[in-house]
Amino acid sequence: MNSRISHTIIYLSIILTFTGNLNHKKYSMLANQSDDTVNKKVDSLMALMTLEEKVGQMNLYNGFWDVTGPVPKEGSAKTKYDHLRKGWVGGMLNVKGVKNVRKVQKIAVEETRLDIPLIIGFDVIHGYKTLSPIPLAEAASWDLVAIEKSARNAATEAAAAGINWTFAPMVDISRDPRWGRVMEGAGEDPYLGSKIAKARVHGFQGDDLKKDNTIAACAKHFAAYGFAEAGKEYNTVDIGTSTLFNTVLPPFKAASESGVKTFMNSFNDLNGIPVSASKYLQRDLLKTKWGFEGFVVSDWASINEIISWGHAKDKKEAAKIASLAGSDMDMEGYVYIQELVNLVKEGIVEEVIINDAVKRVLKVKYQLGLFEDPYKYCNTKNETERIGRKAHLYDALDMAKKSIVLLKNTTKLLPLKKEGQKIALIGPLAADKNSPLGSWRTASDDHTAISVLEGMKTYKGNSVKYAKGIDLIIGETSFIKEVNINTTSRDGIKEAIEVAKHVDVVVMVLGEHGFQSGEARSRTQLDLPGLQQELLEAVYKVNKDIVLVLNNGRPLAIEWASENIPSIVVGWQLGSQTGNAIAQVLYGDYNPSGKLPMTFPRSIGQIPIYYNHKNTGRAKNVENNVFWSHYIDQENTPLYPFGFGLSYTQFAYKNIIIKGSDFSINDAVNISVEISNIGDYDGKDVAQLYIRDLVGSVTRPVRELKGFELVLLKKGDTKTVEFVLTKKEFGFYNNNGDFIIEPGDFEIYIGGSSNANLKSEFTLR
Ligand code: NOJ
Description:
Immunoglobulin-like, alpha/beta, Rossmann fold, 25 strands, disordered N terminus, single chain, globular, binds 1-deoxynojirimycin
């Protein structure tokens, strides 16, 4: 009998009690599932599975073409096909396009004994073919609706290409811009990070995973990867409970509460335990305490790397530790598939552990509707119609404009006049069509971004002269290739100077190439790479009216520019529509409203530098001697703080009103503030509310973001904005990882950045 029919009959006719011990004493298992029908289906299917087939569901193979990690020694295409046919593969990653996905799915559902469909994963990080700004840039918009829409469009395109699972959102908080992967997250703040995590999860997954344009999301990298020591990729992490619970975990918890279907663990160790081996994080905290019902996938061969970390002596031990710890699926590590069956047979790993993992994986496949139609995502009509849609490009442009941050505009060079001006456009990134697409894109076409030059040329009223000046990188680079920035030729600088001499405004597009940030792109310098600083200063000597447009995947330490250049715009890597977005902002057709999601340091020596730091015991220089918390060679303040960003107009905040006065820790505190647009343009500000808990049983940060709202104001208008603070905002995690609320005095600050100085206070009894 056809195996699909056979297991259908079984789950229709028999109410099979799953025999695994769900309340196993040592290892808390998936229990009390909300979705009973799915559970029954999963249980009945599992009753038919051999141990080998179960372990197969815990095995995730990379496709046969692209790699997004080191190429493993094992795993020829032949082995993979062979395993696929045996039903020993639960999912594949980096297989894309309806034709290719259909090919592997067909093997899974037509050639294996039980016909269990594959889950197909892909790094859909900031778009599939149509690229939105890099995630850090999107975070600068603080616009949760737009961010959700961006994820939704990404899901629509990916789903049309056969993909049903994205390895996103990355919700790692990081305070270290040396770490290249900050481009992939939402910055330094757990509150903003949690809101964005929720928006992205909902964007990818929508309200109904059964639809053919929604895909399962994956909160990664669980946990603390963003705290890699010295910002060095794949490095050790040693942080305390307070930072773990108050800073690192909140966005993961938010993702879990938003119903994210999967988590990915991380490459780092955490306080001595490689994360894939951490039972505490995966099984005890995530699955038991938080009640997460989905599955945890390892990062690329991270189970294997438990051996390199020196925490397991061989693959057998790594497989044992990781499975017991709650890593449910092994990504391209060949550890589970080679070791788990024997480990169970030898009685070293109990089968309930395997059952729990498999149940989680199968459940997500059911929720995706793959058992009803394994080819649900393999529709060529959708592939043609939905990928690269005009509407997606329109949304990408909207998102890109919202992501731009204006750092400086002292002489009001911006917005540019639309007519009669001579403009020089200078810099190695000004005409680049590849770099602005950013890192972490493996499905889009190279060299397809609208360059800044192209964007500027759509405005016909001015003359634009372009000079590259210098090269930024040598040769072509890609997601998997080291970037060679060792350029030495100064030949073009002369021409750039000549062009700059005779114009009204110079727009310089400088910064990092898109592939200088992302995975494995840690930097020890945060300046303008290569000869760009030299070019900037050479041009400045002949024309000081410079608008510096930064391209960057992380905060940069640009102290000289910040002191000397009158206008600075953070242009990140804004994706497919980069040039149009930049031009529309420079010309004032969009009034910039972005706010930094990460502090810009003055120098590398200040790192880690973040707004929600502790006060220390010696915060101020009160006696005019040296004995206070500072550097002798640099001030404590950052170059630009978290939450900072200007507009072409100005906003004034006044009149904080706290309704009521006698609050207990159970009360809600309602706060309002007035915001006025006192400048010359209509505009939007992000009103931000910070609290300071003055005395805590665990020391509290000097400020913590606890509310924000985007406020659109016509010039001359005033609006009242309301915030509500409750336990969730007053409380914090103590050093046992318990959430507590303590009575006491609180200060609040409201304004347009983390430096806001409009202040009020209240007391909680
Ligand atoms: C390694 C990265 O750390 C992870 O984020 C990504 O999803 C996988 N490779 C798969 O490409």
